[in-house]
Specification:
Layout: E1 2-11, E2 15-22, H1 41-48, E3 59-62, E4 66-70, E5 73-76, E6 84-94, H2 100-120, H3 133-149, E7 151-155, E8 161-165, E9 181-184, H4 198-203, H5 213-219, H6 224-236, E10 240-243, E11 251-254, H7 258-263, H8 265-275, H9 286-289, H10 294-303, H11 310-316, H12 318-321, H13 326-336, E12 339-342, E13 344-348, H14 350-365, H15 369-377, H16 383-390, E14 394-398, H17 399-406, H18 410-420, E15 423-427
Antiparallel strand pairs: 1-2, 1-6, 3-4, 4-6, 5-6, 7-8, 9-10, 11-12, 13-14, 13-15
């Protein structure tokens, strides 16, 4: 939030001087005023009106409670006293306010005022008393519009108009991996425009909460790096959430946040509506026509635990689970923080890894290509596949990541583990 905007100049008799300030007396209180200024202006005046070599540069400094942004401008001409005119328009923010977007505003304001001064002496010819006139009105409107609407359009004269917009600064998006599944939080089709990036337009139809980033790049027939950049762009603006790949072989467990679902009946209704199966005409099964209550949904979430797959959970609670969309049920819990995914990781023993490295060094010494071809012709696992698998067996790569990178199913992955040798699987 902007606490104050002020305009200052270098007076040939008084030195750095505040001409206009909004709110009044916030920077340089008038004589007789009891208001305490936001900071002591004489102590920092050398930063606001610096020497000419430091002008035309963004200057920012912090006081104990506030941060000041300014871009001093020094114009040289024989028409000015001492052949120079130095001015600065500054923004005062709270010390905790992110100032990246305000820096752009400060630079644009300084550039506009410099242009106006060069064209018509808009600043130097203004002889209005302090806190009056066009410059003061400009500061006043800017403060109100930027704080209330994050944008401002102010007509200066017949040929100049000030257009300022504060673009929010978001935190960097979370790391994006090929096995992540993006889920839209807004209606992306309503935001599209024919002039959008071609890769983005090809990617959007495949963002459905089921396809992983790698699958989206294959379905869209687009380069993976471009697809990743497009999805990161949507993540940055909060249009997507990242989920894990859903499968009935996965394991989930409830968290302490489940207590909020127990107490919040509105959230229970939201969950029931989200996980309900679409009505099918002619379906006479009473088990699928009866809605699931909020109490039943809480019970189902509590029954999810480590070591239990979604498939076994479904079989144990088939009478209730058969009436809901299991994937959406799991997705709702993950989004709201009721559930967390229990990932599986593989670790190769030191003996196994050493054996593979020895085999790799020996294979490099072989020059008979027909022998390798015969090994693959026997129907056994090709040795290069096992060597490719070894880099994922350090306990830091989950099954989802390994399957996505190698483009194989989980069943095939388990068969490769058996062919590889002694591989330990841990869940966490």
């Amino acid at each position: 939030m902007i606490r104050a905007i002020f305009f200052s100049i270098f007076d040939v008799h008084q030195g750095p001087k505040v001409l206009h300030q909004v709110p009044a007396n916030s920077i340089a209180p008038s004589t007789g005023s009891s208001q305490i200024p936001l900071f002591h202006f004489p102590s920092v005046s050398s930063y606001i009106i610096p020497r000419p070599e430091y002008c035309s540069k963004l200057i920012t400094f912090a006081t104990p409670l506030h941060r000041v942004l300014c871009n001093p401008v020094c114009l040289h001409s024989s028409t000015y006293p001492r052949n120079a005119y130095t001015f600065s328009i500054a923004l005062v923010l709270d010390a905790s306010t992110p100032f990246a977007s305000y820096a752009t505003v400060t630079l644009k304001l300084a550039s506009l005022l410099q242009t106006l001064e060069e064209q018509s002496r808009f600043l130097s010819r203004d002889v209005s008393p302090p806190n009056t006139g066009k410059i003061y009105a400009l500061c006043e409107i800017l403060l109100e519009d930027l704080n209330n609407y994050s944008e401002s359009m102010i007509p200066i004269d017949d040929s100049n108009t000030l257009n300022i917009k504060l673009f929010p600064t978001y935190p960097p998006p979370p790391p994006l991996h090929p096995h992540h599944v993006p889920l839209s939080t807004v209606r992306l089709e309503s935001l599209t425009d024919p002039n959008w990036d071609l890769t983005m337009l090809r990617v959007l139809p495949h963002i459905d909460g089921v396809n992983s980033v790698r699958q989206i790049s294959l379905l869209a027939d687009a380069d993976y790096k471009l697809v990743r950049k497009a999805i990161e762009h949507l993540l940055y603006y909060g249009c997507l959430l990242l989920l894990d790949i859903f499968s009935f072989g996965a394991s989930y467990a409830s968290t302490a946040e489940l207590a909020s679902l127990v107490e919040d009946t509105d959230m229970q209704e939201e969950c029931a509506a989200y996980v309900a199966l679409p009505s099918i005409q002619g379906n006479s099964k009473p088990s699928q026509s009866d809605p699931v209550s909020g109490f039943q949904l809480v019970e189902l979430y509590l029954k999810l635990r480590q070591g239990q797959t979604v498939k076994s959970f479904y079989i144990e609670n088939v009478e209730v689970v058969d009436r809901i969309d299991v994937r959406r049920f799991i997705t709702f819990g993950v989004i709201k923080g009721f559930l967390y995914r229990v990932h599986r990781y593989a670790i190769a023993t030191s003996h196994t890894s050493r054996r593979k490295r020895e085999h790799k060094s020996k294979s490099r010494q072989k020059t008979n290509v027909s022998t390798a071809a015969e090994v693959q012709a026997d129907g056994t696992e090709a040795e290069p596949h096992l060597l490719e698998l070894e880099k994922f067996l350090d306990g830091t790569h989950c099954f989802d990541e390994i399957c996505t990178e190698l483009m194989i199913s989980e069943r095939e992955l388990m068969s490769r583990f058996k062919a590889f040798g002694d591989v330990q699987i841990i869940c966490r």
